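Customer ticket, subject: "Can you confirm the structure for Cation efflux protein transmembrane domain-containing protein?"

Message body: Hello, I'm evaluating your service for our small team and ran a test protein. I'd like someone to confirm that this is what the system normally returns, since I don't have a reference to compare against.
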Amino acid sequence: MACSCSHEPAPVKPHSKFRTALWIALIINLTMFFVELIGGAYAHSSALWADSLDFFGDAVNYAISLAVLGASLYWRATVALLKGLTMASFGLIVITKTAYSYVQGIPPEAITMGMIGILALIANVISAFILYAFRDGDANMQSVWLCSRNDAIGNVAVIFAAIGVFGTGSLIPDLIVALIMSILGLTGGYRVIKQALAERNSSKTVSNLEEC
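Agent reply: Thanks for trying us out. I re-ran your input and got the following:
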């Protein structure tokens, strides 16, 4: 006897605006990765160094998102799960780097730190503005929005840390910002992982129904 089965809808044709937004965000983040990596090493700033890793992670995430546009819900959710794990991993890396910098005790160069922080903020505000329209999409879309939002928040904190370092000559403001950024990475990663797992389970349920 034939049974009534639900079927997962065919993958939606990739949204051209979302694809364009991803390409712009990818180029911006890859450029800022190199800027902050070099600048963070020069200024001895944990916050800038941590932010450069975040830029690199985001660039990789955007590239992966471009690769799976139009794929099934299961594979989009799987990629989002990997991105969520990456976001959380960067949070743990930042915590480790912050502890190492505290032991070293070398205060960052505030002027360089502040100038790069402002440049990074402009870059992330542009990315966040472009991706804002896709913030309520699936886990894959949500993850790229969260990446840019967290980065913009982190850059504001980096600027304030630079002001704090300049005023006190201490590395503590830099370390505090690095910890804040690690928390953003951990919480953002958890949110993406949670939704991605739910979407993967939903996709598996549909697949099982199709086999009835």
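A couple of notes from the result: Residues 1-14 have pLDDT under 50 and may be disordered. DSSP finds six helices and no strands in the chain. Feel free to reply with more questions.
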